[in-house]
Design a protein that fits this description.
heterodimer; A: alpha+beta; Ribosomal Protein S5, domain 2; Pdz3 Domain; 2 domains; six-stranded mixed β-sheet; four-stranded antiparallel β-sheet; B: 122 residues; mainly alpha; 87% helix; elongated
């Protein structure tokens, strides 16, 4: 070791500062985000349903993911500008206050709840023609957002279940939409939550400036697996976010019905799924369109809810196609509901 | 294989395990220092240009092979600095060594392309 150090010392002395500078730009994060094209992931590898095991699915149904890099390093930011496919901007909104770990927690909460929504919608649709199929689910109100001024910020995690709170006149408030109406008299109230370790309670105080507790609660429907038939298995996922909802619904539905709705095609797309079967907007449309184009999909479903809205996903997708010289005809399919996507596939003639 | 093992035996007898290990340690540490920014940069390039993932994995295999070459070069240099007149054919010995390690790296890289990455991207 000493011999090498002695031999190379003039070079080491010369390179030590550039080396440290390079390390610095490789580790120092900046308050931006980058959206870059990602890939497509077959839903079958995430969710499997123990039904129709002999059925042969000729095509594939995949969700589309992008690389969403929050607080990239200087180096990531610099190299991202070399490609027209990437989009970089300053982090704004509530995400600016969250750490990267918290953004990941939200993303995986979104993913988990989106799978449940997909299963509910697909099972309900399939049960219309097959009485064997039973879906049961229950309500769960979970922590979805936290403001920086939330008291006991670190003790409450995203995804923790809200059970009830003690409101004015010691009234037990279970309905989270009634919290504001029942917290008029004082500043501090008892809130009861549940996480994987058990139940816990905290005294949350309203912020003096905003007059709010600083917690966002959201109602989800969770599948009751014991009372649902056929059983389904959901694998651990490394891809977060709710934007695969529509494609997850299509794939689960395809596992439940006898006919193969893929008709041998490579189907992909994007869009969240709501419990009533409607499709919701997603982010990173341009990068998803590029990802789909690179992966040569046959059909790409995209949310289309309002043509007058500039940021409507389908309108964004058309602009992205124009920008990158991609012909959208024949493969880019706008949909507003799960039923739209199903009707499109049923109406396809691939002979 | 016999030739390769004989060369190792010859080198051990000529120098001693302590000298060979010390030279290896030096070259390994310097290669590690060199590879740290390279791998950090490559990981970040992959995150931004993820759609070219297979290309990057192939490039990583090539970079690892190059680092392997550099490490052996420095190892050889360190040995000659410790003892300028070495009779054992180190060039041949390290060439065999590099080939063996490169094959291992290639297998690991291919496993990543065909097994681990598809499993991970669910």
């Amino acid at each position: 070791m000493n011999e090498l150090t002695e031999k190379f010392w003039p070079f080491i002395r010369l390179l030590i500062l550039p080396y440290l500078f390079f390390i610095f730009i490789l580790v120092y994060p900046i308050n931006y985000y980058i959206d870059a094209p990602g890939g497509i992931a077959e839903v079958e590898s995430l969710i499997t349903v123990d039904y129709n095991q002999d059925k042969e699915i000729e095509g594939s149904i995949s969700s589309t993911y992008i690389m969403a890099i929050n607080r990239p390093t200087f180096f990531q930011f610099m190299i991202s500008v070399f490609s027209d496919y990437n989009y970089a901007n300053v982090i704004t909104g509530s995400y600016a206050d969250y750490s990267n770990e918290e953004i990941n927690q939200i993303s995986y909460l979104d993913k988990a709840t989106s799978v449940d929504a997909a299963v509910i919608v697909a099972y309900q649709e399939a049960s219309k023609t097959n009485s064997e199929i039973i879906i049961d689910y229950y309500e769960k109100v979970m922590v979805f957002g936290k403001a920086t001024y939330l008291s006991f910020y670190d003790d409450i995690a995203f995804g923790d279940e809200f059970l009830y709170m003690i409101g004015d006149n010691d009234e037990v408030v279970e309905d989270y939409t009634q919290i504001v109406a029942h917290t008029v008299l004082y500043d501090t109230y008892e809130f009861f939550f549940r996480n994987s370790e058990g139940n816990y309670f905290l005294l949350l105080t309203k912020n003096s400036e905003t007059g709010k507790f600083g917690i966002t609660l959201k109602k989800y429907y969770i599948v009751d697996r014991e009372n649902t038939y056929p059983h389904f298995t959901e694998k651990e996922s490394n891809i977060g976010g709710p934007s695969g909802g529509l494609l997850q619904t299509l794939s689960v539905y395809n596992m439940l019905v006898e006919e193969d709705i893929t008709k041998g095609l490579k189907i992909a797309g994007t869009g969240t799924i709501n419990y009533n079967g409607s499709v919701g907007y997603i982010g990173g449309t341009e990068q998803k369109i590029i990802t789909a184009y690179i992966n040569k999909v046959d059909i790409f479903f995209i949310p289309f809810l309002n043509e007058d809205y500039y940021y409507d996903n389908y309108m964004e997708a058309l602009r992205a196609c124009e920008k990158h010289g991609i012909d959208p005809s024949g493969w880019l399919v706008p949909v507003a509901t799960f039923a739209d996507a199903l009707a499109y596939l049923e109406g396809l003639d691939v002979s | 294989m016999k030739k390769y093992l004989n060369l190792w035996k010859e080198l051990k007898e000529e120098l001693s395990i302590k000298i060979i290990a010390d030279a290896f340690f030096g070259s390994f540490v310097y290669t590690l220092i060199l590879s740290l920014p390279i791998f950090l940069a490559m990981a970040q390039i992959i995150s931004v240009y993820f759609y070219l993932l297979t290309f990057w994995v192939v490039l990583i295999i090539i970079v690892v092979a190059l680092l392997n070459y550099i490490m052996h070069l420095w190892w050889k240099k360190a040995l000659y600095l410790k003892q300028p007149e070495i009779k054992t054919n180190i060039k041949k010995l390290f060439c065999y060594n590099q080939i063996i390690l490169d094959v291992v790296y290639l297998i690991i890289g291919l496993l990543f392309i065909f097994v681990f990455i598809p499993m991970w991207l669910v």
